[in-house]
Amino acid sequence: MDFELMASMMCADYGHLEKEVRELEEAGIDSFHIDIMDGRYVPNFAMSLNDMCYIAGATKKPLDVHLMIEHPSTHINLFLKRLRKGDTVYIHPEAEYHPSTTLQKIIDAGMVPGIAINPGTSVETVMEMLRIVKKVLVMSVNPGNAGQMYLPYVGKKIARLLKLKEEMDFQIYWDGACSADKIQQFAPKGFDGFVLGTTLLFGKGKSYKEILDGVREMRF
Q1: What stretches of the chain adopt beta strand conformation (E)?
Q2: Residue 17: is it exposed, middle or buried by C-beta count within 10 angstroms (0-12/13-18/19+)?
Q3: Residues 103-132, buried b or exposed e (16+ Cβ, 10 A)?
Q4: Residue 205, exposed/middle/buried by CB under 10 A (0-12, 13-18, 19+)?
Q5: Helix, strand or coil for residue 33?
Q6: Read out DSSP for 80-135?
Q7: Whole-number Å distance between alpha carbons of 80 and 121
Q8: Res 155: pLDDT
Q9: Structure pTM?
Q10: Strand, helix or coil at 30?
């Protein structure tokens, strides 16, 4: 079964970031997920523009940039001019007055446009944007912190999005509390990738290669 695995770099060891990037690459990670938080849209500060630039310069793997910031249109060019064509940029529709305009800026810059959908965000409120974006990041936890518990009520929304996926031509990705059992449950249903953080990848006392190989070898 073919699906992508992304490393949530806010969970990495920042005392040895170059080593972390190298070991994740060697282990076979598909892309690096960069969580940018402004302390306003979410109640936390996480990675910065400089963190993103460092990782972009340390790897040839794609970047998956998740902007958890208010009014991303105000700052979007700071990120776009430092990324490479083909990298993905997600915005939260609630954080923007005119999200479709910001998505068009991402498209015009040669990046892959995406939206992140919070647990409390209904499919109806993002329906038209599903026609624009190429990727949908489904938050199975409230955004802002690592190590949270999966919110079961997200499951019904996931079922609706999976039905819309082919019709509207977007890919769907999982973010938050991603365990091996969640991959086994949802990969066969049509998920295209999973963001891996402290639940499965980081701080487990095993090599990244051992963990990622284990995920790839799971039976479905």
Answers
A1: 4-8, 31-37, 63-68, 88-91, 112-117, 135-139, 171-175, 193-196
A2: middle
A3: bebbeebebbbbbbbbbebebeebeebbeb
A4: exposed
A5: strand
A6: HTTS-TT-EEEE-GGG-SSHHHHHHHHHHTTPEEEEEE-TT--GGGGTGGGGT-SE
A7: 26
A8: 80
A9: 0.94
A10: coil
In this structure, what DSSP letter does residue 15 have? G
Give the span between the Cα atoms of 110 and 126, in whole angstroms.
22
Characterise 176 by phi-psi region: left (phi > 0), alpha (psi -120 to 50), beta (else): left
* Count of CB atoms situated within 10 Å of the CB of 39: 13
Q: What's the mean pLDDT in 49-61?
A: 96
Assigned token pair, 34: 């960069």
- Higher pLDDT residue, 155 or 77? 77
Two structure tokens written together for 128: 């038209």
Query: Which residues carry out catalysis?
Result: 35, 175
CA–CA gap between residue 14 and residue 193 (Å, rounded): 25
- Residue 77 above 80 pLDDT? yes
